[in-house]
Amino acid sequence: MSNRSAGAHKLVVQNLAKFYGDVVALDHVTLEVREGELMTLLGPSGSGKTTLLQLIAGLVDVSVGSVIIDGEDCTTTPINSRDIGVVFQNYALFPHMTVAENVGFPLLMRKIPAQDIAKRVSEVLEMVGLSHADARFPQQLSGGQQQRVALARCLVYKPAIILMDEPFGALDAKLRETMQVEIKRIHRESGTFMIFVTHDQEEALALSDRICLMEAGRIAQIGTPQEMYDRPQNRFTADFIGRSTIFDGQVHNGAVETALGALTLPDDAHPAEGSKGCIVVRPEDIKLGQGAYCGMIVETVFNGAEQRVMLSAGGIDVTATAPARGNAFTVGEEVKFGWNTRDARYVPND
Asked: Which CATH number fits the domain 244-348, given the four candidates 3.40.50.10540, 2.170.150.70, 3.40.50.300, 2.40.50.140?
């Protein structure tokens, strides 16, 4: 996490909820985000992440709770008075305006002098790497370039917060990776506070200072990418962040009784006797060709630098990774596997 995130709270959401009749879209969420931080709201469809973003922006009315920006209660403040920039998935650029005109439009609406507009547009286009395209029209740009124009249009008037609602959803995989690097660079250079909404956990891990993982309108866990991956606090986080093999069971005599057998608890886990939970093991920690367990290979996937090997053992789906140029694994083959207990994680049932 960057040093910027150690500062004061830029945004505080207190007991925030949104109801549509009997439907609870957001269920009394409290969240504090720090100055200069890039926070990702992550979760599956219907988890409440976009609703939370809309409430912060003022796009929809709050049912319960408050939104505080820079110490000021903005719960009922109109969106045009919140000093917030929003970047949508569809870019929303004006097709009849050049890149420079699109970027300068927010300043024009704020009646900034023309010479100041030209200077600030030039600075922000250089920041996003589009100085050479200032006279082009949106239809003359690639998807990634249009996305950078949309971001520049937010950056140019220096809003307190930039909200990005799944902005890479329309881009191909390679371009998404490129834009992730660009967003991190721009965030680092500008120091602007950003909230980024996505359902893509790999994108969240790549971009974020911290991740707020949401489930069914509530916050499941908040932490740095490494904390979320290495130390999930519940089964949902363990299953949603990265790939995991999850062995469900009940605690008995210092182990978790599972369909695979009695699995030793990690040293840092001290659950109560008889409680229910699971042992979580990441694919890179499972060793193939050795160990106390045996499974049948049901599929292999080549990913370039590595291969993913999927096993069935005791009715449980087990996923491991192996070097791409290592052993050749065959579907239907029986293979031993295991892991070091210190590499596993115990999490209680949700």
From this structure: 2.40.50.140
Distance separating alpha carbons of residues 108 and 169, to the nearest angstrom: 29
Rounded Cα gap, residues 295 and 313, in angstroms: 4
Measured between alpha carbons, how far is 272 from 342 in angstroms, rounded to an integer?
A: 19
Instruction: Say if CB 57 and CB 195 are below 8 A apart.
Output: no
Lowest mean pLDDT among 17-26, 276-285, 326-335: 326-335
Question: 């909820």: which residue's tokens?
Answer: 17
Whether this prediction's pTM lies above 0.70 is answered by yes
- Asked if pLDDT for residue 177 goes beyond 90, the answer is no
β-strands 345-348, 64-69 pairing: unpaired
DSSP line for 126-163:
HHTT-GGGTT--GGGS-HHHHHHHHHHHHHTT--SEEE
Task: Report the side by side order of strands in the sheet with 287-302.
Answer: 316-323, 306-313, 287-302, 334-338
